[in-house]
Amino acid sequence: MSFEIALSGINAVNTQLDTISNNIANTGTYGFKSSRANFSSMVAGGPNGAEVGSLTQFIGVGGSTLNTGRSLDAAIQGRGFFALKDNAGGMSYSRVGNFVVDKTGMLVDSAGRKVQGYAITPGNPTRGALGDITVPSGQIAAKASTQLNYVANMSSDWTTPSVTPFDKTNAQSFNSSMVSVVHDSLGQQHTLTQYFVKSGANQVDVHYTMDGTDLGTTTPLQFSTQGVLTSPTAPVNLALGTPTGANALTVAVNYTGTTLYAGEATNSVNSADGYASGTLTGTTIAEDGSVIAQYSNGQKQTIAQLALATFPSEDGLTPTSDTSWVASQASGSALYDAPGVGVSGTLTVGALEQSNVDMTGELVNLMSAQRNYQANTKVISSENEMMQALFQAV
């Protein structure tokens, strides 16, 4: 019986050594969670040795965060897991947020599994259904300008121009001018020029040209004795004509915040919406899990939001290859939500979670396992010597 008891101890320690060596081997593996072998006694009518009754995964212990600076890397701070779908439709879960956009435009992890998230349509705040994330590879369409925000100080030191009436070709007929860039429905750039003419105490008239052509429109700007704009109180709608091949272009100019103070004439805001078409130049992940497509025209569009999965008991997850887990009866079914919601955790972008293996602790466990192994082999050796002595006595 002593042989069998000692042999069971050796087998149990072998399993412990397997667990320890696996932990040590994965010290540098992103998102790896260490495990511990739990010994239990065996009794069958009497003491029958030891066995490894279970393995405990330290899933709830986070690893340190390594900053990579890469736009598609993300680390989870919390209990969540990235949800991944393989080509067969099977779901697995990982803490490793090392993603790329493959040649088909799918957002995948380093093993080629499809990252799961919520589809988002630009301009629509409602999240779509959970599924694969596809980054559009085509061009983003041009958008015609509809608004121009313009804020400036017109300078109360201006004097009424000596030359009248206004003539854009004669700088003596206006006090200042400013060019704004607008886009038509085809994405073509046009120049909207504003000419500012002091026409009286606390009043400035604005004349406009579109690509050098007079629009024949004049907007009076009225100011209070404190230099604050009192009129117009609403954006000024300017009909800029119909560019060749494009739709008619109308832009609302908002002068809110413009002043008439002494000193130099300055401009603080001169920004129109609208843009030319653009091609995809890159993809990034934001801290809220948004997947953002970047285009050559400077525009950005949120196309999806990553989903994080949580479980009633993550300790019950079954580990698989590629530093992943699959759901089991012990873990319960996955619950999905966006980063930052509930207990799923938040994201640190441009970073990866490192292994949570404590190398010092594993080396101590290794020495302890070695001692236990040697003790069990000593029992077998002693038992063998006793048996030999017995046979020799007989």
Brief rundown of the structure:
The protein is mainly beta and 394 residues long. It has two helices and 28 strands.
How would you sum up this structure, described in words?
- With 394 residues, the chain is mainly β.
- The chain has three domains: 2-60 and 355-393, no CATH class; 65-140 and 280-353, no CATH class; 147-272, Tick-borne Encephalitis virus Glycoprotein, domain 1 (Sandwich).
- It contains two helices and 28 strands.
- Strands 5, 6, 9, 10, 20, 21, 22, 23, 24, 25 and 26 form an eleven-stranded antiparallel beta sheet that branches. A five-stranded antiparallel beta sheet has the order 12-13-14-15-16, with no helix packed on it.
- Helix 1 (2-25) runs antiparallel to helix 2.
Descriptors:
Tick-borne Encephalitis virus Glycoprotein, domain 1; 28 strands; 15% helix; 2 helices; eleven-stranded antiparallel β-sheet; mainly beta; 394 residues; five-stranded antiparallel β-sheet
Q: How much beta, percentage-wise? A: 35-45%
Instruction: Note the overall shape.
Output: rod-shaped
Radius of gyration: 36 Å
Tell me the number of structural domains. 3
- How does the major sheet shape up? 11 strands, antiparallel
Which ranges are low-confidence, i.e. pLDDT below 50, for 5 or more consecutive residues?
Answer: none
- The DSSP helix count reads 2
What's the average pLDDT? 93
Q: Structural class of the secondary structure composition?
A: mainly beta
Helical amount: 10-25%
Order of helices and strands: HEEEEEEEEEEEEEEEEEEEEEEEEEEEEH
List how many beta strands DSSP finds: 28
User: How far apart are the termini?
Assistant: 21 Å
